[in-house]
Amino acid sequence: MITRRRVYLELREGPAPAASQALERDGHAVLQGAFAPDEVATLRQEIERVYAELAADVRNPGLPEEHREDFRYEMLNRSAACQAVVGDRRLLDVLEPLLGEDCHVIANTAWRNPPREEHRHGGGQWHIDAGPHVPRPADVPWDDRIPYPIFAVGVHVLLEDCPEACGPTGVLPGSHRSGQHPPFERIGDACLTYEGRSAVPLTGRAGDVALFASDVWHRRLPTTSEDTGRFFLQIHYGRRDIAQRLRTTRQANQLSEQAAARAEGRRGRSVVGLHDPLFYDG
What we know:
Elements: E1 2-5, E2 8-11, H1 18-26, E3 28-31, H2 37-53, H3 65-68, E4 71-72, H4 75-78, H5 80-86, H6 89-99, E5 104-113, E6 152-158, E7 169-171, E8 200-201, E9 209-213, E10 218-220, E11 230-238, H7 257-262, H8 265-270
Antiparallel strand pairs: 1-2, 3-9, 4-5, 5-11, 6-9, 6-11, 7-8, 7-10
Helix pairs in contact: 1-6
């Protein structure tokens, strides 16, 4: 656990919430009943309004239009209720011991997945959300005397029940400590394990909150014939040093018009901060 003391990060002393400890140790946690039914109803109503009023962003041209409709980005810009949830102490009290008291939201996307047999979004295969942030050879174990650093955490505020039939996010416990990404040849294998541990489905009821470290191997698990869809508000939090991706860098950057116009080629654009959408903003 860490804390920001003056301008530097230091090791945190004293107890931390059980969910913070689980995130550091296993890479995932679930807060049961974090939000009351009336809070969920208000948040859901606000998000449904955004879906009704705003067309889907075209951030991934390869995603079919039907699937693009599942998402609405930068939700805190579009809903006061979403912004209030982002800063809710019930979430920050768990996150700050891992990311620092000055952590911030880096992405905020609503997901409303209807029942369907095929899920084309990349979240349906084993992946990590960027990183691994501390890459190392697979045969080099982590020294347990050093608290494993977490740089970003994904948060799913469930707006409706998500049982196993609906394809909840599944995580491989402990894989965030591997320094590796999931093996490419098995990214579609729901039976993938890590150090003998199988996927843990982050199921929950409306009002529960699922959290997972960005480096943990995770995916949407397969649905069944009883799938009724998923609906949740996703919030990604990162350390202060990690750039926000609420909008793409084409939409939001720190360049003058002249500098942006001078950038040529993919590397010429990325070196000045004009990155292709990928993790968090895509």
